[in-house]
Recover the amino acids of this structure.
């Protein structure tokens, strides 16, 4: 069965430090991977996606993610965290073999950036 | 380009009542998905409609239903409301294609009392 795991419920980082939010997946074939962010009482906003090509993908607000096929991971990173990055982050995957195009979601990781 | 619009933003209902939520997707998007989000259960997939047909369905009871109209607007209905149905209901639209991202509305906050 296809699945996405975000192993950390919460990540705490000091402002100015680098941050990593982890995501691993299990799908058949080459996956399409997505990261979204959710601020309190808002809908989800698209950050970035990996489809093919360069394993390092750059997205909105200075975020980037690295696709690692051998480790089946797609970790979200940022070199220097801001307090305003504090939010809920979701990883999602879509399997190319899935004719129903369904997006599979991780459980979310709460990112807290402390001043 | 207008984003995904969900109405109403907030709703308070009584146990046993029914409710209908509306979602207008981004123009040109034919796929609309619905999600339930609660603090304890995270983001739970309800169903997805594409060109007026239900394409995917999550693991929710039959009290939860939806439909999509020819203009791609979608509604979801919850009958016989329970306290546990209190949640943020999110709608997302996307265009056709495996590599396309979904765009979310602001959500409807449903409170059942």
């Amino acid at each position: 069965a296809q699945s996405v795991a975000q192993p950390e419920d919460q990540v705490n980082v000091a402002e100015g430090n680098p941050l990593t939010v982890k995501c691993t997946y299990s799908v058949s074939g080459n996956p399409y991977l997505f990261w979204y962010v959710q601020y309190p009482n808002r809908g989800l906003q698209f950050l970035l996606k990996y489809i093919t090509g360069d394993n390092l993908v750059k997205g909105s607000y200075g975020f980037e993610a690295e696709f690692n096929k051998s480790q089946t991971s797609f970790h979200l990173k940022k070199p220097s965290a801001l307090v305003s990055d504090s939010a809920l982050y979701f990883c999602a995957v879509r399997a190319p073999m899935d004719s129903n195009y369904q997006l599979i979601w991780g459980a979310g990781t709460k990112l807290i950036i402390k001043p | 380009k207008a984003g995904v619009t969900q109405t109403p933003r907030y709703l308070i209902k009584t146990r046993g009542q029914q409710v209908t939520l509306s979602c207008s997707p981004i123009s040109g998007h034919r796929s609309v998905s619905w999600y339930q989000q609660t603090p304890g259960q995270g983001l739970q997939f309800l169903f997805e409609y594409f060109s007026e047909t239900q394409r995917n369905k999550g693991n929710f009871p039959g009290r939860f239903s939806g439909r999509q109209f020819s203009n791609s607007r979608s509604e979801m209905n919850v009958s016989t409301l329970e306290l546990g149905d209190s949640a943020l209901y999110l709608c997302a639209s996307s265009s056709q294609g495996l590599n396309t991202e979904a765009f979310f509305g602001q959500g409807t906050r449903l409170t059942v009392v």
Summary: The longest strand of chain A covers residues 87-94.
